């Protein structure tokens, strides 16, 4: 308890100092439709300020951020600041129906929050409907001191890996959800461009110019809807220096594995002969091979200064990419990295645990409505669950979940999310993939787990083999967490607790729970609010692979959630 009090007092002192010396960064996001051409077709998409991807935000640690969102699109919109702690500002977190209701067409709302005790690359994206497909952008937090725990790079370069749906993504997913079906993307993208492997796309290939001998900081984001991605640049190696805005021991590799929602800060040294090289991204997909994933490759060009016209007859060098099911490569990247103890904003692992949970994460089926037409497996609808609870947002309840919590309104959600699965079985055995006694979810629910302020929470995410073992990128709003261990098979506390890294684990906000495996995270619930926990594969999130933590306010005004802003959008 004394250690906890010390860290909280230190954090409070840092907060006071940061705010005293902070700047205010203010922008306007105009959300609007725009017609653009990709894959030979003109499509109307939703953008911010007419840009796809959207504008890059740059702040310094400690800054106050004010974003005016003006909604000129035909859809309700909210913006989530993915990876921002929102310390004592949960009202600004953004997920629709969780912390606020949507900003309606022809309405506006202003997000206000402080960026405290974090630096590196995070991102922002829409958190209403499926609009994040095109409404997203980088959010770069520079150190207030200007000092980095690695040599200063020559330039910073956002690299946003995304995907493209050849149609109106809202209409596509309305059909998908109604029919309980699956729809895969038509292309992956690098900074919004599919690259020259796709029809009509030779001029829609991202180009990065390098000066030989210089080092560049790639600020990588996986904004794709549904896929982990491998990323390589021919003949070049990377030095990874941070993940999810948390510094790590430098990790040298020639391939980046990045799950949806994750970010990586990566040093790239221009140490190759002057020439042209491809960068490329391709999916990492586990489970049985299936037509239900986008098995395409996006690529861009890395061109050195001095690459003259006389050299242009030579073709760019293409990297050798891993096969789509290269679990060993993905697992090596996810597990071999350790945190940088003593780095700015490093937080030691809390050793005393107040709450322990084991949460199964599954793909399921939901029974097709009577007289309905469903296109999922066995003519049912696809669904998803955590501890066999398939989550639904409280649409039509009149309040967001956070408002209901603050005003003590009943009927919006319940606080009985189970700490453990209701059934124990061989979770990862392929024999259970089509066990009809387990494949169907119960009725949709809106359940949360209530936490005391400052309690320490340990969660085991246990993947299951129901329907198909898949990797699930689980994202926790409002916090970063320590990744203590991960592995394959069923988690066994007696066997696996000895594997916990309590010294220098990774600190992340999104963990790729391995297919047919488990991961253990631990965090301190020192931020009051309603914090969404969900799979960042959008299909699975829409099917119900979500829950929330309701963190109570602390004992003083300074540790309590303030009242909502007067202009918070109403349901």
TrEMBL record:
Its main location: secreted. Its EC number is 1.10.3.2. It catalyses: 4 hydroquinone + O2 = 4 benzosemiquinone + 2 H2O. Pfam families: Cu-oxidase, Cu-oxidase_2, Cu-oxidase_3. GO terms for molecular function: copper ion binding; hydroquinone:oxygen oxidoreductase activity. It is found in: Secreted, Extracellular space, Apoplast. Residues 1-22 form the signal peptide. GO terms for cellular component: apoplast. GO terms for biological process: lignin catabolic process. It is an enzyme of class 1 (oxidoreductase). Residues 31-145, 156-306, 420-553 form the Plastocyanin-like domain. Binds 4 Cu cations per monomer. Its cofactor is Cu cation. Belongs to the multicopper oxidase family. PANTHER family: LACCASE, MULTI-COPPER OXIDASE. This is Laccase. It comes from Vigna angularis var. angularis.
